[in-house]
Design brief:
By secondary structure, the chain is an alpha/beta fold. The protein has 2 domains: 314 residues, Spore Coat Polysaccharide Biosynthesis Protein SpsA, Chain A, CATH 3.90.550.10; 86 residues, no CATH class. 36% of the residues lie in helices and 19% in strands. It has 15 helices and 20 strands. Strands 2, 3, 4, 7, 8, 9, 12, 13, 16, 17 and 20 form an 11-stranded mixed beta sheet that branches. The protein is globular, with a radius of gyration of 25 Å. The model has no long low-confidence stretch (mean pLDDT 95).
Length: 516
């Protein structure tokens, strides 16, 4: 199947031909759907914390920070392109000689376009784009309103003009303050100072596209002094890239390698699941994980930070108890009552479904069983009420051997043709905002090898196009899905203010992204 040139291309990515055959085998066999048992809810997989309890968890975390290595891990490789999908559609379809912009909006029921124009002056990039449009557009003032709108959007997006869709999402202007515009990258620094700082320093790690490294360096150099002065915090910023060895082969509908116009093999990035390798290289006591586009303007940051501290407090309290039990399991004199106590802790605090036959096991095997269940990385994940956002959610999942566990599941992992499964998904009350706090060290202070806890069967197959041709793409188990499938998991209800992603440019008009 592969020529010498193909093999060289494969090996240049630090992959082997056998790796590629295995990937093609996954396409050929297909990926089994997950089997949902039920959606997670309060008192069934989701912890609801009252206000007074919340303060106790915040205090617990605050009391420990001086002795902790803390890192904020931010997946930030995404480009801003998808934010402007409806604007690109407008540029492709609209002809000012045929109709007005209002007529286009009415004819196409283009609500996104209508909202964009109504809120235009509230966007942080408005003045920059308008000034550039006036500077570069001949007789701008003599144009009709529709022609001015078209010129504005072309100035904003055209490759030979401001080309704003090419920005990494982290460097796109998100928020407009009195004296400057702030990028998502900048907001992550301000936010980190509130909950991820220890002894006056905050460590942040961003996973980015390698081609944008210089841009991020330049942005940090521009804002470092100001942010450090305002927060009284020194920032240590590190970057990593999605490794080429995690790229996957694309195939045709016949499951044969998809080839580019020059006959080379087409490889694609394998999704955020590839970042488990980046996360695995971080050695810290507490790791906060949050997406680059989930930020708020400054007046909401203290409230958001309190919930991050709460999640970290939950992690530290549960982790401390788990470590005590693991040390107890190391002793020879542990008694049956203590083993039952540990089993109850696993069930009540860590949502582990202990085997129904546990009490019939031998004393020696009970110890081994409990240690295996306890001695794992721990994640505490915020969950928000489902408001109809697309994406994953918390579910109890049953695997092929009948084992039930708590997982974050994406809609693409569910068989929509199965009415029962579709009903469970449709009626789920909670949504995953990607708001994680991770404990990746064991009770001896040694870091876990996170690659040992991946469920490799939970890959994704998606349909894409290249040069007008359809192809199938393979994504690795998602970072917070299959890549963390065998971690111990606690889901905690958090309010909607903690979830403010910017999937479309119009999201920047929502209250958490506006000063007034």
């Amino acid at each position: 199947m592969f020529s010498n040139k193909d093999i060289q291309q494969i090996e240049n990515k630090k992959l082997t031909v056998n790796d590629i055959y295995q990937q093609i085998g996954i396409f050929t066999r297909g990926v089994p759907y997950l089997n949902l048992k039920e959606a997670a809810n309060v008192n069934s997989g989701i912890l609801k914390i009252l206000d007074d309890q919340k303060q106790e968890f915040v205090k617990l975390f605050d009391s420990k920070t001086k002795d902790l290595d803390i890192v904020k891990f931010v997946p930030a490789s995404g480009a801003a392109t998808r934010m402007f999908k409806f604007l690109f559609q407008f540029l492709e379809d609209y002809n000012p000689n045929d109709e007005s912009v209002n007529a286009y909006i009415n004819r196409n029921k283009a609500n996104d376009m209508s909202l964009f124009l109504v809120g235009l002056e509230k966007f942080p990039f408005y003045k920059e784009v308008l000034n550039e449009t006036k500077r570069t557009t001949l007789d701008y003032g003599a144009l009709s309103v529709s022609e001015q709108v078209l010129a504005f959007i072309k100035t904003m997006l055209d490759e030979d003009k401001l080309n704003m869709s090419f920005y990494p999402k982290g460097l796109f202007p998100f928020h407009k303050y009195k004296d400057h515009n702030a990028t998502a990258f900048e907001e992550h620094l301000f936010e980190a100072a509130l909950y991820a700082a220890s002894n006056g320093e905050a460590d942040l790690h961003f996973t980015i596209s390698e081609k944008h490294k210089d841009k991020f360096d330049k942005e940090f150099a521009r804002i470092e002094e100001i942010v450090e002065r305002k927060t009284n915090t020194a920032f240590n910023i590190t970057f990593s890239y999605q490794k080429e060895s995690t790229d996957t082969i694309a195939v045709t509908h016949k499951n044969e390698p998809f080839r580019n116009e020059d006959n080379s093999l087409l490889f694609r990035p394998s999704g955020h699941g590839a970042l488990i390798k980046n996360l695995n290289e971080i050695n810290a006591d507490v790791i906060f994980v949050k997406n680059i586009d989930n930020v708020v303007v400054y007046k909401y940051e203290t409230e958001v930070a309190a919930y991050k501290k709460m999640l970290a407090g939950v992690l530290l309290e549960v982790q401390e108890q788990a470590f005590k039990y693991l040390r107890l399991l190391d002793r020879d004199e542990i008694i049956d009552e203590q083993l039952l106590e540990i089993a109850r802790f696993l069930t009540r605090k860590l949502n582990v479904v202990v085997h129904i036959e546990f009490e019939k096991y031998s004393h020696k095997y009970q110890i081994e069983y409990l240690r295996t269940k306890l001695d794992r990385p721990l994640r505490v994940c915020g969950m928000v009420k489902n408001e109809g956002e697309p994406g994953g959610g918390p579910f109890w999942v049953k695997n092929e051997s009948g084992k039930v566990s708590l997982q974050i599941v994406e809609s693409s992992q569910i068989d929509k043709k199965n009415k029962a499964q579709k009903s469970i998904m449709k009626n789920a009350a909670y949504f995953n905002p990607v708001d994680l706090v991770c404990g990746v060290k064991n009770y001896k202070g040694e870091k876990y090898d996170l690659l040992e806890f991946i469920d490799h069967k939970t890959v994704f197959i998606s349909s894409k196009t290249k040069s007008g041709k359809e192809l199938k793409a393979l994504e690795l188990p998602g970072l917070w899905n299959g890549s963390m499938a065998n971690w111990n998991t606690i889901f905690v209800e958090v309010p909607l203010i903690t979830f403010n992603p910017v999937k479309t440019v119009n999201d920047l008009l929502k209250a958490p992204h506006q000063i007034n």
